[in-house]
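A note from the maintainers: we've had questions about how concatenated examples are separated. There is no special marker in the raw files; a new sequence line simply starts the next protein. For clarity in this README we add a label.
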Amino acid sequence: MKINWKNKIYKGKNQDFLNYKSSITNKISQKASLKIERNKDFPNTIFNDEKLFFKTSRSGSLFLREVLIYANDQPIIYARTVFKKNLRQLTGLVKKLNENPLANIVFKKKTKRSEFIFSHMSPNYKLSKRLNEKQIAIKKFVGARQSNFLCKGERILLTEIFFKDINRFI
């Protein structure tokens, strides 16, 4: 089942972070010890809505970076970054990030961020099932958002899934 995205936030408590346009990782790093773990265990699976966004049917033409972000050793965000693989300069920059946030690229360059779209993350979504395999239960999700960045004329798609513990650090 594909993710159902909406232009409005699903009602819930303490969800101001869902509309926060600047770097959430920079904001959280001021209050907590931040750790970013690249997910190398997941197969490099590009979802149909991501292929549709880039107008391609070939997953091999897209680059995917998946990370879990922790604050004081508590998982707070799962993030997926997808862009066209043929963008050598961007691919090189993202690969060099290693355990650093994407904010080190998109908020330090001249970029333009789109408006957000939101989801409540149903347990039936493929992404929810993959996160459950990683022992991150759906009951810990508090919201999801997606946006894209325009950087030097190229688009970067960012999907972020937020967990309950984020409210302790925002």
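[label: protein 2]
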Amino acid sequence: MIGYIFLAIVKIGDNIVQTAKSISTYQERKIISSILTIISQLMFYLIISRVIEDNTLLAIVIVSVASGLGNYFAFLINDKCKKAAKWTFVIASSNTNDIQNLCNYLVEHDIKYIVNDGYTRKWQKTINVIAFSKSKDESRLIEKFLKETESKFLKEII
């Protein structure tokens, strides 16, 4: 029984290492990706030799379930460790009061922004705000304001 528990833990670890390797490969971290590949291969062959030695359906099922769990845990770890995406919101309105309310809201929440005058396709005067969110929370605050207000804004997220 302890052998099966160890097998499951090693397979969960293998999936976490494989996911970290994929992320580091995507980020072009050659040395880290190479080291993680070595670790993952060692773990993989240890698992394979154990499953072949055991030669039971139970070992295969344990490795398969542990693989799914390892994948899930890898996503949880990645979500906790990854940096929040930075978004740039370009928000336009022809109503000066709406833009002023938006700017006041951004100031209250310490979100940096720039205000510009512009024109629509019909050459009507418009005002746009370029808001720079530093985190997911700031992006959510901007989205919340735009949803909760009765004003109409043209929004583009970059």
